[in-house]
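Here is a tokenized protein:
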Amino acid sequence: MSTTERADGQQHWKKIWVGSAGNMVEWFDWFVYSTFATYFAASFFPKGDETAQMLNTMGIFAVGFFMRPVGGWLLGRIGDRKGRKAALTLSVSLMSASAVLIAAAPTYAVAGYGGAAVLLVARLLQGLSVGGEYAASATYLTEASAPGRRGFASSFQYVSMTVGQIIGLGLQLILQHTMSDGALHSWGWRIPFIVGAAGAAIVFYLRRSMLETDVYEGASAEAGEAGEDSGTLGTLWKHRREAFLVMALTMGGTVAYYTYTVYLTKYLSSSAGLPKQTATLVSFCALTVFACLQPLAGALSDRIGRRPLLITFAVGSTFLTVPIMTMLRHVSGFWSALGLALLALVVVTGYTSINACVKAELFPTHIRALGVAFPYALANALFGGTAEYVALWFKKGGIESGYYWYVAGCAAVSLVVYLSMRETKEIDLHRVGLDTRDREKALAS
């Protein structure tokens, strides 16, 4: 290997590391809300039915998702017009501010519903942040990688997302074993948000010195490529077929992902009756294996294509969700719960490992960040953010199994999309969409 090739390789890995580290902190802050919700739900609402308190708390969690389309539009526009670095730096700043707000939020006993209002504002800021973070990091990691390694490199987005969640669960395990249950419910739940705010501040410093991608810089250097039509909703409408495709292929994946990652711990403790510590440990171990699977599946997609993995996920989720969730409902110990959780997450890996690069490969450079951000955020607001709320709604209504069929149905819809979509593995990111844009310019002149 020549010195030049070695230097290029180091630059690629530096971009992946900085992009992934920030993504990890962002998703740590995003997920610890749900992870620690069982401890702070009673702090912000009147005493009463525990399920009702969780519904209120997870309702605020879901509201954060409805700010994601706004964040997707705002940071996607910035990413296409000012660069991926600018969007990533702004997103982590918003996340840091939201973590501070949650850590300092007053309880119901102190400020009535004022504490819940602070919680709501913080989740809205988190929604803005994560709405742009996903697309900015997906675009950055895809563009920063070598053409034949995009699946492998972009898989680190879900590696970092999952590692952020693992750190949150690990912190929860530590607090559960070092603090009393009463202390955790009283004030210990604030600790992860303090940690998240500090981590976001560190990442802000790292992202200020990160390198822009060659694909974006090359496009910006071309006449008109970074002009007035970059990152606008009008330009996105010209690529509406791809935008609707992003929403449809996200639908099944995001519901399954949130079911087997975020909701799993609460499901095992509240529905299966496992102790909270055991449920947390199951999620921690399962997610650790899940994170390790992402680069392997991403590398596999670089060899055989993206569609085979997506189709495998959709078929598995459509036909296995109901039996897996039913068996999880009746587990009696750690090992049986872990085995079923791992089976579910192996299936979900077919989506999570490559969805970032698939979406980025659909759009040209001047609209790529917004093209990924806005439709993905809409799909997450409608399906991912509401997953836990829908699950708890079915549970409260006494028909918990209805949620299993809901997840399977969403996967079935995405399966139809995967079967009909084109393969994107061989697409040249420098050229995708340029022929269409040239035709548009010719018609306008």
